[in-house]
Structures are given as structure tokens and as C-alpha cells.
Amino acid sequence: MAESETGGDDARCVRLSAERAQALLADVDTLLFDCDGVLWRGETAVSGAPETLTALRARGKRLGFITNNSSKTREAYAEKLRRLGFGGPAGPGASPEVFGTAYCTALYLRQHLTGPPAPKAYVLGSAALAAELEAVGVACVGVGPDPLHGDGPGAWLEAPLEPGVRAVVVGFDPHFSYMKLTKAVRYLQQPNCLLVGTNMDNRLPLENGCFIAGTGCLVRAVEMAAQRQADIIGKPSRFIFDCVSQEYGINPERTVMVGDRLDTDILLGVTCGLKTILTLTGVSTLGDVKSNQESDCMSKRKMVPDFYVDSIADLLPALQG
């Protein structure tokens, strides 16, 4: 898995020592971080992570945060970063450093729902996702609980639909229900109705090594029922990186992607030509890396980071030296 452990010529997935980190950071302007499982688990910051980001800022590094979680607005994520000690821009006119799938889904719909009628979306997701869509002029319906109406399929199909819906958006929705799934399929029977998923994460890491089902489970349910494939916004889709690049003017050769998932964070970095660091505080393990390295599947072999750390706090010695 690591260079010293495999003994091979593949220099990818090397433990990032302080010496290596110093050399890496000397050639880097921008560091992009995943959030859940990298900076925090639930409402608890990863030990040493706030100090690491403070030190990176002091070194003049530009930071960005790319999260697949659609349950918070861009501003709410920026506030959480500040609350947990990670700093960031503040005050009127400050531009958030966060690029979440709720915000980027709004940008996607603004690009694709042009012309009359006025854009409207059926949202299987949070109020935060709807708020981001409405901020760019996309009206939203469907947020919140929606229990089954009537005694059987006939009654379910008679439930009224909102006129003018031009997209079904699937994000993290704790109120996901069979009624919502049925309505989504009915909207998607219109050939010009878009199906958009915020991300395909199959589970979300919480404190104490616990997980809950992720948005990808809900997207798959809608895809299967509608027999349609969703346009995916979040990592590893290049669209979310393009959103960052357009605002930041990123040079990929001088940018690092730091994440805890091989199939989202690391694959995004590899696809976009970034340097990559896997942190072992979240979902993926070194065993997963080794499995990918030894796989005959080319797509899996792409999901191998350049470096790994136990935690992003491992960067502190390089920043303090």
C-alpha cells in the first residue's frame, strides 16, 4: 500500500512525512478539503485539524472546502467552519470558501433551466437545498414530510402534482418516502424533466465510527423507479471542481485535494490533475487502497492517492518546522 510496504515502483500512496509535506507544500498554492470525515465527524472537529488549517492560512495558502453534503447552505457551512475553529472569511461581502452540492446544484439548474416557463424543481432534500435553488431563481416544491395519501396505488397516483416542474432534484432527505418516490417518477415521465442528484455517497460518517445511509441510496431508488440516469453534481463529478475553478482560478498543478474517500475525493483529484492526500479519519482505509492497487479494473486503479496521513494534523510538524 505505501511505497515502503509494497516495495514496488509505484510511488503513489506514500506516507506523508514532515519532510515530504514540506516539499509538497512548497509547490502548492491551494488546498481543497472534504469536510465530513476529514475536518470533523458530526459536530466534533478532528483532533488537531483546526490548528492545521490555522497554520496553513498563516503560510498564505488558499483553502477551499468541497462537500457532497447537501443538507446545509454555503453560508451555514462557512459558519460551522468558524464555530469549530477552522477560521475563514467573515463580515459583509466575504466570499465563502465552501463549495457544497446544494450551492453547485443551484448553479447547474441555473445553466440548464433557461427560457420559459419559470424554472421549478421537485426537491427530495432539505430546506437548505431548496434555499440555494431559490436564491438563483428556481422555485421549489416537495420539501418536508409527505406521507402516503389514500389506501392503495390508485389513490397514490391521484395525488395532485405541481404544474410547471422541470427538474427532480434528489439530495439528502430524512423525509424520503414512498409517496415522494411515486411523485418523482410521475414528474420524470415528462421527457424534458431533468433528474439531478447532488451526490452518490452511499453512507455518511458520524462520531464513534458510526454511519448512516447517504444520498446515493436515494438517488439510486429514483433512478431505478424512473428508469432514468441522474446528472450527478458532487464528487467525483468534474462539475463541482469546475465551480471551484471558476471562482478561484485554480492551477491544478499547484493544488492538492485532501479527502477520506477514494471513490469521491481522491478520484476527483486524479481526474482533475490535482495532487491527492488520503486521510484515514473517515471512510476509506489503507486496505481499500491496496485492493485498488492490486485490482485488474482500471477505474479502481485510478482511485489511489499520491500520499496518505493518519489525520490532517500530521501536516502540523511540516508547518511548524
Beta-strand fraction estimate: 15-25%
Biggest sheet, strands in spatial order? Answer: 1-16-15-14-2-5-6
Radius of gyration: 21 Å
What is the name of the CATH class of the largest domain?
Answer: Alpha Beta
CATH A-level architecture of the largest domain: 3-Layer(aba) Sandwich
Shape: globular
CATH topology of the largest domain: Rossmann fold
Which percent bin holds the helix content? 25-40%
Give a short account of the largest sheet.
7 strands, parallel
What is the number of strand segments?
A: 16
Name the CATH superfamily classification of the largest domain.
Answer: HAD superfamily/HAD-like
Distance between the termini: 28 Å
Oligomer: single chain
Regions with pLDDT < 50 over 5+ consecutive residues? 1-9
Count of the separate structural domains? 2
Average pLDDT level:
92
Structural class: alpha/beta
